[in-house]
Amino acid sequence: MNDVVSYKRDGEIGVITINNPPVNALGHAVRQGILDALAQGTADDDAKALIITGGGRTFPAGADIREFGKPPQEPSLPDVINQLEASKKLLIAAVHGTALGGGMEITLGCDYRVALDSAKMGLPEVHLGLLPGAGGTQRLPRLIGAKAAMEAIVAGKPMKAAQLQKMGVVDKVVSGDLMAQALDYARQLVAKDAPLRPVRDLEVKAESADIFSDFEKSIARKSRGFLAPFHCIKAVQAATESSDFEAGLKRERELFAELLKSPESAAQRHVFFAEREVAKIPGIDKKTAKRDIEQVGIIGAGTMGGGIAMNFLSAGIPVRVLEMKQEALDKGVALIRKNYEATAKKGRMTSDQVEKCMALLDTTLAYDDLSEVDLVIEAVFENMKVKKEVFGELDRVCKKGAILATNTSTLDVNEIAQSTKRPEDVIGMHFFSPANVMKLLENVRGDKTSDEVIATVMALSKRIGKVGVLVGVCNGFVGNRILHKRQHQATQLVNEGATPAQVDKVLFDFGLPMGPFAMADLAGLDVGWRIREGLREDDPANAPEYNWLDALAEQKRWGQKTGGGVFDYAEGDRTPRPSDVTAAEIEKYRKEKGIETRDVSDDEILERCLYVMVNEGAKILEEGIAMRPLDVDIVWIYGYGFPVYRGGLMFWADQVGLDKIYAKIKQFHEEAGEDEWKPSALLEKLAGQGKGFGDL
Ligand code: 3H9
User: Fold this and answer.
1) In what residue span(s) does the 3-hydroxyacyl-CoA dehydrogenase NAD binding domain sit (predicted)?
2) Separation of 273 CA from ligand 1 center, angstroms?
3) Mind listing the domains of the chain with CATH numbers?
């Protein structure tokens, strides 16, 4: 026995307790400890039955993910579970917290399962690009049927104790003191001489011949590019194809091994840790005091302000929205209600919940009514003069200690902060549209923003269901700054001879949810056009040249919302279709500029659109705008749908090889001379040293 697993007897019941904080992950020491404790319990003549449970906050939450990719150490988890299942003494799992992955698989190796009502169990391996590889794909179908097991394993969602009891996984749900009741339950089982119930002895058949292929088809779109969901299906299918349990286990091992060495799983495991790492800010202690946020003020009831408000309302935090005119307030409130009601219609919330959220919403036309809020988020027109006026007012009315945040996507947060006498309380909170849906929140640290404000806003991001990433001040911050470079290359590629549909297809096939031009149509071509028009007026010498996108915008082809932009859209259909108008405008532009078109290959499109992003990402790191490569990864995954199975922009670049990317960037710079191709010094250095961003 070792420190992480203990064996103790309570009357006639032996109790094996796993103690490996924080989540009792099943690392090598735990696996060995379980076998040792099992041996002790087996040898203990006074123990009539055994309970296995987790100490601290949870039953094991799975295999130790940090061990994957390292040389395997015996005993393996499948072996441990096989030995538990082979125990000649009744074995009962007593579950609280989150019994996930290998943790749930342990419970499936037991004869009986008792769970606290607050406990959850599930097989989330699919989210790590894996499958339940310790018998889960063979035992769960035997307990609940092949179809239900396949669906649960591919969804990878933790399920509640009551639901698990209905499904036939959990035998007894208890509340209050888990251990006392598990001991009681074990004694009752002993008293009635309850039989051993190894799950492997149960039979399983596919409900019908087509369940596997039908299910595969049904997830094809959602799971595009992922490997694990399809391997999960194959493993469950194997359980139904032979009555030989060992043969099924062997097939599961083979499929698991394939996934473990796949680039998709490496990427997804990187994302798992990156998601947790982004919340940790180097230099800011996690014990830093956080301010209480109990009421929020929002300036602006437009689409953005309304979307931002919904995040807080949904999290149970009261919001007071300020506008200049009653009409704008009424419109904004109506839009929020409409959005909630649409969600309720889809069955994702009840009408009671809608009313609860709406009851937390309050409006005002007067700045003085914001004197008591703990946080204000400004979401007004993107104009420095206007923002400064707003912050001047906020400085005047807000209480001491209130956090003053701007939702600007382009403007200098430091300059905004200077319009107050408390720049240490000012921060950027850049929500992505639609703000009530998109998970990313770029929190922008100004030069003077205090650690306390940063810590509060980062914690608040999690509380409202966002993934907060801390970034520095620059035009476009991390996400849009990189996006702009890609959009520019996409347009250049079309100028040179590609079609918008070709460019979009290449990036869609790479795994992005849509291509750059479909994205421009979704955001609205008028947005960029108005900004360019403004620049042409204010600073003609440095203004961007007029191109075919401007010509389309001038014709009110603003994208999906006007039925046509770069692409045409049929009424009520978001499928982009090539447009003759666009083709003619592109042709006209090329003629005016005297551009001789050429065949542009798909490879060139991919390289130019993505390598320019990598170069910009490296510059962003160099300048300290992003703290770590993983911050850039998370921004692009949650803000723009960069495929999770590629691990994010910088992780993907490492897989391609920075030397290869650097050589191409240098070549593009020599050919095109564009500033965006000037190689980042950091990229050059890493490429020269044969290193990747992951080595930073
Ligand atoms: C598996 O089981 C494979 C088997 O089928 C087959 C094997 C042969 N390992 O998330 P938190 C760390 S695959 C190592 O912030 P929460 C985590 O990184 C596994 N470390 O807490 C963090 O570390 P740090 C299947 C792990 O309360 C700390 O614990 N299981 C693991 O918000 C706290 O985590 C899963 O996929 C792990 N398995 O959420 C479950 N889990 O403090 C993955 C966590 O240094 N885990 N850590 O940043 C989770 O979903 C959540 O962590 C959980 C707790 C819901 C448990």
Assistant:
1) 295-471
2) 9
3) 5-261 (3.90.226.10), 296-471 (3.40.50.720), 498-597 (1.10.1040.50), 599-624+628-696 (1.10.1040.50)
